[in-house]
Amino acid sequence: MENETEEYGFYSKHIFFCTNERKPGHPRGCCAEKNALKIRAYMKAKIKEFGIKNIRINTSGCLDRCELGPTIVIYPDNIWYNYSSIVDIDEIIQDHIIGGNVVKRLALTANQEEIKN
Length: 117
Ligand code: FES
Prior knowledge:
The chain is α+β, with helices and mostly antiparallel strands. The chain has a single domain, classed as Glutaredoxin, CATH 3.40.30.10. It has helices at 2-8, 36-49, 86-98; strands spanning 13-18, 55-60, 71-75, 79-82, 107-108. It has a five-stranded mixed sheet, covered by helices on one side. Strand 1, helix 2 and strand 2 (55-60) form a beta-alpha-beta unit. The radius of gyration is 14 Å and the shape is globular. The structure holds FE2/S2 (inorganic) cluster. FE2/S2 (inorganic) cluster is lined by residues 18, 20, 30-31, 62-66, 69, 71.
């Protein structure tokens, strides 16, 4: 599989930022109301500023983990994060994207149903 990824893969990491917007008061909430668009723009600019290549940061529709949002997912790592500020994004860039380590304090587990405080 590793050789095939080299041959057929394109980005080394593909980051999806949920920016889904729902009407105010929706029971599931939405990532847009939690500043997702602005923070996605920040991350994109930071990745460029650091000169990190071969990474794509896309907006996405609902990733269906709304109650845990705002959420991003990083593939092919299949690591999901909740973030609340640019400080969290800086940590994800430094530790995960550059350092190759999961930021455990922000990572969502597979069966997680609510945000830990
Ligand atoms: S609205 Fe963002 S995960 Fe559903």
